[in-house]
Amino acid sequence: YLTRFARIVFASTQQGYEGTGQGFAIKFQAQLDQQTPGWRQSLLQQPIRWGTEDKLEQWAQAVFLSDIGLDSAVKEDEIEVTACRFRPVSQAALLADDRLLMTLFGLMQVTHYRTRPADILLLLEQADTTIWLADYQQQCVGCAIVVNEGALAEEMAEAIYYGRRRLSGHL
């Protein structure tokens, strides 16, 4: 469609958990940049489905963690990777620090279009998960959530190797 028509309007949302909006922002905008340089983006400054400062909407956003966003003043293109400090953070530390937990979850939301509220529970409860943070100028700018797989009994590893077994959730 990009090459067939002179003018096209694409509309989406990046807020919430629909998934398509974040996919649009992460994937499709790069395609637009490549195929149609000079395309224009317009952003709504006021919601159209509810009034500004709507109390019910504010409550729903707080309950479902749908509008955390990023609190960082550091722009992505300003980050010097060699100046980043990488550190592990425990699940207990995240539970004790609401601001850090919300920053981590906000990073997950804006960088991965399939992040859901239930992911915060998995993040905090899975014993085989290690969480790494990247700090730049005292601000969390990145994270890696590592699921430690393996540590299987020899018989189980052999059954998996020969295709007789497959563990759910493991690569």
Radius of gyration over all CA atoms, rounded:
20 Å
| CATH class bucket of the largest domain | Alpha Beta
Taken as a percent bin, the fraction of beta residues is: 5-15%
The CATH fourth-level homologous superfamily of the largest domain? Gcn5-related N-acetyltransferase (GNAT)
Number of strands: 3
**Biggest β-sheet: strands ordered side by side in the sheet:** 1-2-3
> Segments where pLDDT lies below 50 for 5+ residues?
none
CATH topology of the largest domain: Aminopeptidase
Mass-distribution shape: globular
Label the structural class: alpha+beta
Largest sheet, strands/sense/barrel: 3 strands, antiparallel
Figure out the total of helices.
Answer: 6
> How many angstroms does the end-to-end distance come to?
37 Å
Quick check: average pLDDT? 82
The topology string of helices and strands comes to: HHEHHHEEH
Q: Percent range for helical residues?
A: 25-40%
The CATH architecture category of the largest domain equals 3-Layer(aba) Sandwich
What number of structural domains do the residues give?
2
Summarize the structure.
This protein has 171 residues and is an alpha+beta fold. 36% of the residues lie in helices and 13% in strands.
What does the model show?
It is a single chain. With 171 residues, the protein is α+β, with helices and mostly antiparallel strands. The chain folds into two domains: 1-66, no CATH class; 68-171, Gcn5-related N-acetyltransferase (GNAT) (Aminopeptidase), CATH 3.40.630.30. Helix content is 36%, strand content 13%. The chain contains six helices and three strands; from the N terminus they run H-H-E-H-H-H-E-E-H. It has a three-stranded antiparallel beta sheet with strand order 1-2-3. The chain is globular. The mean pLDDT is 82.
